[in-house]
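Re: the 274-residue chain
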Amino acid sequence: MFPESFLPDAIEQSAELLSRYNIPSVYAYKHYNGAGVSTYRGVVISNNYDFHKLGSFAEATGTELTFLFDPALQTQRVYTQFGGLLYNHVNDETFYANVTDLNVAAQRITNKLSSQSTPNFLLAGYQRFRQDGTNVGGNNPADITIPRLKTLMDLIKSDPDIGDKVEFVTPERFTWLLQKSLEPTSVVNVSDFKTEIQAYLNQSGNLQLNVSSDKVSRLMVRVFDISGKVLMEKHWGIDTGDNCISLSAGHLTRGIYLVNFSSSSFSHTIKVVK
């Protein structure tokens, strides 16, 4: 909601701080607006972010991952279509929740973990830290101390069903693991269908697509820019064995593009850098 003239300085200062302290992730914090949207001192404020602005700011500052709390997005999900990488957590009782009873809190988190396929990610450590010895009760139910946090972690790790599958990580490692889970490879092998897929820019500067398959007969190929906009789309009927096509890429500027191959049986995406 700041004037556009403020952005260059805000971007420069934020990028410098991230670089100076070698911090790859940030937490986007705002106060919540129960009215949804209202005007305060002449400024319109909302309970929701403008996700494209937030993502663009993250991308411009070199932020690798932005954590946020916003009811307009699904909880415990990563979003890649807004520019920078965003990870939302909201209203699911795994964060900033009542931790007066650590056994109840641990059970709440393990129940959430047990309902997910693995590997997966859960942001469950957004609490207000207090000094050791602080009493946690009805007036500060979401506060936690380091010793109590250690107890909570031990309770989760001791869960007979899910404990041995849980790894507690810092925001930095969370960011690295999340990015790695999203990172497409240049060659994708789909063992169930004996399908190999490649996408790259050939020597002519065109987008070369190679598919070798014994079962897949029809593919939909879509090329997206980093914001998620569809730039090219092609229905591709393929034969058993090796198939290749070359798509003109002269209209694509320098940047990162995502090439998605989908059929009735599978969907795979490959990153291509021009």
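The longest strand covers residues 218-225.
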